[in-house]
Specification:
The complex is a heterodimer of chains A (250) and B (322).
Chain A: H1 2-17, H2 19-43, H3 52-57, H4 60-74, H5 76-84, H6 86-91, H7 97-116, H8 118-130, H9 138-165, H10 169-192, H11 199-206, H12 209-217, H13 223-245
Chain B: E1 5-16, E2 19-30, E3 34-38, H1 45-52, E4 60-65, E5 68-69, H2 74-80, E6 81-84, H3 96-106, H4 111-124, H5 140-152, E7 158-162, H6 170-184, E8 188-193, H7 196-202, E9 205-210, E10 213-219, H8 220-227, E11 233-238, H9 241-246, E12 254-261, E13 266-273, H10 280-289, E14 293-299, H11 304-321
Parallel strand pairs in B: 3-8, 3-9, 6-7, 7-8
Antiparallel strand pairs in B: 1-2, 1-4, 4-5, 9-10, 11-13, 11-14, 12-13
Classes of the chains: A mainly alpha (250), B alpha/beta (322).
């Protein structure tokens, strides 16, 4: 456990010691600002039936932020260490493969969560100025953040996997972007088509991150979706661990 | 007997597609020894060290460190070794103390003990003055010392250093060498280098590697003795030429002699002993007896460099024939 904590601290610290952490945070803040202004326009005197969180999160901004920041956050985790050679000192220290994978994944997820926290501020501003406590239901907000965490963990796990495959950060970023976009496009299809009961339609519906996101932002937490994110995250972490372990087969 | 061995390597082989980096080497290193791996670039030194550090798997053969197999019990092995890779990679965005603390925690040291150990190694490696600096801003010599401090921080039984002095200036090389020498008093060290004097200076035993094979393994003195074929003595003496020629004739210790005129009244005398004896006291005694003058008296000593060139050249000759 001590080992994981030490590694986790190092991973999280790494974002703030290099430019990448600040670049990601400022880019995301910029987009938050945009979506905030956008939404204020929509709210201006027109009654809305969707909760504020849905109008906030289930927009194109969420996808731009997720699809672009996920590769930026995860590309360094293995690839950077491999290219600078610190991977060798790391893997010759008495640490287990799983410890390394979990610490690196935990570091990316912690940073991802940190990046999203300012949105909470935006929500409180709206609540403050509308003067109506019903604008922001804490349970809906909690559900939304839970959803962000779940979707984030899947994207972070995919990114860690991509980063473990290569020693070039650019290739790692492109790979994880590709994986992320693929999942996004699949869910776009399922939104565009009407949900059908036939095999492919049902499958697409099941993995539709967009549909899940809409549910989460209404405060609906469906266990099927939770299971989907937990298992797919676990799958990519397992794949990452296999890649890390593979140096011992070669 | 087995307990006193730190490293046991048996028939270790590492093949990459298309070439063999390590070709069935066998050697042992006892506890407390300082052993040097010597060989040209690409001889298989780094590969062997990486296998011993559990970073690479071997293709064949076995390697044990402190009695633990590097493939089956890598955790036990990694706990007992301090390894510094060739390029000495560090997290360049961390401060010296912070980095060492992180590495100590990674190696399983508790909070208090890691703090104490980091203080100790900072002092040991002469890093106390720079402990708050960022490693990326340090000179190469200091970075090398940070790498050494990292290798030491968990008090390992065995320290593996891959080319610890490469790329340093002569002054930095000296400090790193003396540090290694100091460490060698208490720990087993395996270091690799292609700089010959380094091995002569720091190691008690040498393994000479070339093209993935061990060419020679012995103490530096033994290697010298084996290969110094004659132990020839050179003396420059001012004396009448005939007397100088005659005086060696009846001495049983001398097998061959040769007198050549140098400048003026001086002659250069080359003497070959019969059984490797040291002729220098004898020469001096003769000179004194005859009241001659002596201005130089040396015994030609084969340096490790000669041995190395000799061995690797021999090996190269064998290849076309084989």
């Amino acid at each position: 456990m001590n080992v994981i904590l030490a590694l986790l601290r190092r991973e999280l610290g790494g974002y703030f010691k290099s430019m990448i952490g600040y670049v990601v945070i400022s880019a995301v803040l910029f987009l938050f600002g945009f979506s905030f202004v956008d939404m204020l326009g929509k709210l201006n005197g027109v009654p809305q039936d969707a909760p504020v969180t849905e109008q906030f999160y289930a927009t194109v901004y969420f996808w731009v932020i997720l699809l672009i920041t996920a590769p930026m956050i995860t590309m360094r985790v293995f690839a950077l260490e491999k290219s600078t050679g610190t991977y060798e000192t790391l893997m010759t220290a008495p640490v287990g493969d799983w410890q390394v994978v979990l610490a690196k994944f935990g570091g990316t997820l912690a940073f991802f969560t940190l990046v999203w926290l300012p949105l909470l501020g935006c929500l409180f501003i709206i609540r403050h100025f509308t003067g109506d406590p019903a604008t922001l239901d804490p349970r809906v907000t909690a559900g939304t953040f839970f959803g962000i965490l779940l979707i984030g963990s899947l994207y972070m796990a995919m990114g860690c996997f991509a980063s473990a495959l290569t020693r070039s950060q650019i290739i790692a970023a492109m790979l994880s972007f590709l994986l992320g976009v693929a999942l996004f496009v699949l869910s776009l299809r399922s939104v565009a088509l009407s949900p059908s009961e036939s095999g492919w339609g049902a499958l697409l519906d099941h993995i539709s991150v967009m549909r899940h996101l809409a549910d989460f932002s209404r405060g609906i937490v469906d266990t099927r979706q939770v299971v989907f994110y937990l298992t797919s995250t676990a799958f990519f972490l397992y794949m990452t661990q296999r890649v890390v372990e593979s140096r011992r087969w070669k | 007997m087995l307990d006193s061995l730190m490293i046991e390597v048996h028939d270790l082989t590492k093949r990459y597609p298309g070439h063999t980096a390590v070709d069935g080497i066998t050697f042992t290193v006892g506890r407390g020894e300082v052993v040097g791996f010597l060989g040209p670039n690409g001889a298989g030194k780094s590969t062997t060290m990486r296998i011993l550090a559990c970073f690479l798997p071997a293709t064949g053969g076995t390697a044990r460190v402190a009695g633990f197999d590097v493939y089956r019990e890598p955790d036990e092995v990694r706990r007992r070794i301090g390894y510094m890779p060739e390029s000495n990679p560090l997290h360049l965005d961390m401060r010296v103390r912070e980095y060492l603390k992180f590495r100590a925690r990674l190696k399983g040291l508790g909070w208090r003990r890691s703090r104490d150990r980091v203080d100790t190694v900072l002092q040991q490696c002469g890093l106390t003055d720079v402990h708050r600096r960022i490693t990326g801003q340090l000179s190469k010599g200091y970075r090398q010392r940070v790498g050494l401090a990292d290798a030491l921080v968990h008090e390992p039984d065995l320290i593996i250093l891959d080319e610890p002095t490469v790329g340093l200036d002569p002054h930095q090389i000296r400090t790193v060498r003396s540090l290694i020498k100091e460490l060698g008093k208490t720990t087993t060290i395996l270091l690799s280098t292609h700089i010959l004097p380094e091995v002569e200076m720091t190691c008690s035993r040498v393994l000479i590697l070339n093209q993935g094979r061990i060419l020679a393994a012995d103490t530096t003195e033994n290697l010298e003795r084996k290969l110094s074929l004659d132990g020839q003595v050179i003396a420059e003496i001012a004396a009448p030429q005939d007397a100088l020629r005659d005086c060696w004739r009846d001495l049983p210790e001398i097998e061959r002699w040769d007198v050549a005129p140098a400048d003026g009244e001086w002659f250069r005398v080359a003497l070959t002993p019969r059984n490797g004896a040291d002729l220098r006291p004898l020469v001096f005694a003769i000179v004194r007896e005859n009241n001659w003058s002596l201005r130089e008296l040396t015994r030609s000593r084969h340096s490790l460099e000669d041995i190395f060139v000799h061995l690797t050249r021999q090996n190269r000759k064998e290849i076309p024939g084989a």
